[in-house]
Amino acid sequence: MKQIGIIRCEKNETRCPLTSCLKALDQGREGFQDGDGHELVGVFTCRCPGDGVADMARILKSKGAEQIHFCTCMFAHKDKDGWVEGDGLCPDAARLAGGAARAAGIPCVLGTAHLPKGYRPDIFT
Ligand code: SF4
Over 90: is that where the pLDDT of 35 sits? Predict the structure, then answer.
């Protein structure tokens, strides 16, 4: 059972209660298809300009997280035909995930639920 932390963007904080992300984690779908099950250890909300993400990653690790996922809405947007890579809520999603991975020393993954068609989750180590 892999222990998971999630970091989401403040721009969606009051609009999305992470329903799809948590279902995908629970059911081992979308961004959570690796390993034999996943358990959530905690969720943090990033605040612009993202300076706190490294500390959030370290804290999630201290709570047991073995891997951190950044929500799909940070790097993808919903189109009329579904989710499409690009034009997400955060122009710095990859930089944040890379920095978080280096700070905490655990993999950081771009992607949770509703992955864009053909997208394979970017994993930063
Ligand atoms: S830095 Fe990016 S992820 Fe963090 S709050 Fe700002 S837009 Fe959202």
Answer: no
